[in-house]
Write a structure and sequence with these properties.
It is a single chain. The chain has 13 helices and 18 strands. The strands form 3 sheets. Strands 7, 8, 9, 10, 11, 12, 13, 15, 16 and 17 form a 10-stranded mixed sheet that branches. The protein is 36% helix and 20% strand. The protein has 2 domains: 102 residues, Ubiquitin-like (UB roll), CATH 3.10.20; 327 residues, 2-Layer Sandwich (Creatine Kinase, Chain A, domain 2). By secondary structure, the chain is an alpha+beta fold.
């Protein structure tokens, strides 16, 4: 037993933890959980906990149903909303999924990301991400299929002392930080009842785990306050959608591989080729970064939602943006990908963004000229003359592009790739028959 495992077992005893929740995700990004007694955790570290993998979306076939959950001790955290004077202590720990012979399950989204990170490590890189997560707060209780009512009608950066959203963000951030998840910013967003909380940058695997925890924490805090938190990409017609703009960077040891002193925007050749890779493969990965029918209501609603494949500096209508840099802080040079939904599976999305960027570096892709005008304000002819292509305009379109992508198939692996295509084709077929009520009934109570 290693020191991290010993620390976890000692903490269980010292904090009188009575339940340990083993967390993992299915292919779509839904959090799954099974509770075990603390006495079972030591055995789980050594041998895993068996479960029926065929009952989990996309994980395995019925003929290969036996799977194991392998707890990762470094992800152990006590759940503060389940540990009070009235409740016995509860903790959570993320798990890797293994086959019965102890090999990583290739359909485990966490393993998909680990595999992409290993490829980056072989090239000498560490991949860091920093998400800006938008979400809506609605008055509860929320009934399936009913039109949601926002908790307020204030706007972007509005200071509204004593409001529901102010109190909510304060409680949510305190809960996140008590679990070791650092928050950088928080504020009211542009839509009624819409908010944003930005997590501090971390390596991509830690960030993906933090995003899954973030969603759970916000749902729990909202429930305690009698409201409902939704990560649905476009819950309200005529109002801004909720995205997860994500800042990306590669480090070579302690050096930022995207930084080059004296270069335009201090962006290195490696950084430019990374962006070129993301742009070239953007349409192929959109079915994963924007995986719901409702996602395309956000992408094609105008405003600051990115609809076209281009990059820029201060241009927030571009798909990829190079944020304003600080000349004295070369380590802060990064790129921002703006299409991601708050409801995306972060493990699969980060794996694909990394793979696309690495492909650009490996193949020496040339970065096209940047777009500094509002891309939405340009005519179709102007966009064509600049070589700017649109993102897929529907889930059906995104699926058809993804289906032909070698990069996506290789990154996700055969099982995840095939399942994702089948699942999303069925979702599109369901939507075609039910239209808008389908979105509220299918997505809102889940996201």
């Amino acid at each position: 037993m290693d020191r991290q495992q010993e620390f976890v077992l000692r903490t269980l005893e010292e904090r009188d933890i009575r339940f340990v929740r083993l967390w993992f995700t299915d292919v779509i990004g839904t959090l799954k959980s099974v509770a075990i007694a603390p006495a079972e955790l030591e055995g789980a570290f050594g041998e895993g906990i068996g479960f029926d993998g065929s009952a989990i979306e996309g994980l395995s076939r019925v003929s290969e149903s036996d799977m194991l959950l392998q707890p990762e001790p470094s992800t152990f955290q006590v759940l503060p909303w389940r540990t009070t004077d009235e409740h016995q202590g509860t903790a959570r720990i993320f798990c890797d999924i293994l086959t019965p012979d102890g090999q990583p399950a290739r359909s485990d989204p966490r393993f998909v990301l680990k595999r992409a990170l290993d490829k980056a490590a072989q090239a000498g890189y560490t991949f860091y991400t920093h998400p800006e997560i938008e979400f809506y707060l609605f008055k509860g209780p929320l009934e399936r299929g009913a039109t949601p009512e926002p908790v307020d009608y204030v706007g972007y950066f509005d200071n509204h002392p004593g409001s529901t959203t102010t109190d909510f963000r304060r409680t949510a951030i305190s809960t996140l930080e008590s679990m070791g998840i650092s928050v950088e910013f928080s504020h009211h967003e542009g839509g009624p009842g819409q908010n944003e909380i930005d997590l501090r940058y971390a390596d991509a695997l830690t960030t993906a785990d933090n995003i899954m925890t973030f969603r759970t924490v916000l749902k729990e805090v909202a429930r305690d306050q009698g409201v409902y938190a939704s990560f649905m990409p476009k819950p309200l017609a005529g109002e801004p959608g909720s995205g997860m703009h994500t800042h990306l960077s590669l480090f070579d040891g302690d050096a930022n591989a995207f930084y080059e002193a004296g270069a335009e925007y201090q962006l290195s050749r490696t950084g430019r080729r990374f962006i070129a890779g993301v742009l070239r493969h953007a349409a192929e990965i959109t079915a994963v970064t924007n995986q719901f029918v409702n996602s395309y209501k956000r992408l094609w609603a105008g405003g600051e939602a990115p609809s076209y494949i281009c990059w820029g500096h201060n241009n927030r209508s571009a798909l990829v943006r190079v944020p304003m840099y600080k000349p004295s802080k070369g380590q802060s040079v990064r790129v921002e990908y703006r299409a991601l939904d708050s409801a995306a599976n972060p493990y699969l999305a980060f794996a694909l963004l990394l793979s696309a960027g690495l492909k650009g570096i490996e193949e020496g892709y040339e970065l096209p000229d940047g777009a500094e005008d509002d891309v939405w304000s340009l005519t179709d002819a102007e966009r064509r003359s600049m070589g700017i292509e649109p993102l897929p305009q529907s889930l059906e379109h995104a699926i058809s592009v993804m289906e032909r992508s070698e990069l996506v198939a290789e990154t996700l692996g055969e099982g995840v790739f095939d399942y994702f295509l089948r699942n999303k084709r069925q979702e599109w077929a369901d939507y075609r028959s039910q239209v808008t009520p389908f979105e509220l009934q299918r997505y809102l109570p889940l996201l």
